[in-house]
User: Fold this.
Amino acid sequence: MKSIKNSLSEKFIINKYLKKLNFKNKGTFDFENDGAYLGFNSKHYKLTVTTDSISEDIDFFSNDDPKSIAQKITTVNLSDIFAMGALPHSYLLNLHLPNHINENWLNLFSSQLKKIQNKYGFYLLGGDISKSNKLIVSSTFFGSIKKKLEIFQNKFNLYDDILITGNIGESKIGLEILKKKISSNINLKQYFIKKYLYPIPCKIGPLIANHVNSMKDISDGLIGDLTDMLNDKYGALINVNKIPLSGKTKKILNNKKNFRLEDLLSDGDDYELIIISSQKNRNKIFDIANKNNINVTLIGKIISEKGIHFDSHLDVKNIKKFDHFS
Assistant:
């Protein structure tokens, strides 16, 4: 197969694999210019922006399916956009490609990007391509949000509800299975590995933005991200039995040889949302979630005593936040 080393060029990659992702928006100049414009002019909406990178051997394995890598780079950014209460608009993509990247890889990667763009309604604005010893993919996403709306991560009141979407810990289990640290039957293995390789962002953020005080995506673990939200000003009382776990996850936890619940609370890549809102808005949020088939669970409340406190034996002091540099 053709590789970066002997035949692929930046122009070839752009023309064959990336131009199809600009959806012919005029501001992209069909990738013939070194820059682009957003063409965003609205009396009622403003732009939001977020950026993220994923790296080989840190965020994914070198032999991971390119469709999985496309899924991850979009999910990490879309999750932030949704947590801001915004909708995705467009994005910039930077590819640092090693010699082993070939046309088949590029075809699978770009096709998955196009599929995701169609699903969520955004387009590729531009970016950059360079050579590298390892595969690194970075992206900057732009979103649109109502001008009068601002969603902070740490603005809330005493006794506000703490809610989370979806289930916790499934990506972590998938990673541990791939590392051969957990053994299970084939059906469970396939389920959890898919959760790790193909994370899906929770899109409820823009739908409930008018009814929340704060939101944050769970990218560094439930405990780590909730700690960041508390910002050493408030505390949280968490009902352990309310933490949402799938039946499959409970099967894994019931096997004492695997790991504890605490292990699932400290790792990221769930890309669910932590929502902090007034109790008076609880039913509104649940109604919106139900109408959109999104699971939302009330797991606790904001308290005055600083730190995270559980209503059971769990000890938060033993739970470390995920950190790329640790």
Observations:
- Residues 210 and 251 are 37 Å apart (CA to CA).
- The chain is about 30% helix and 20% strand.
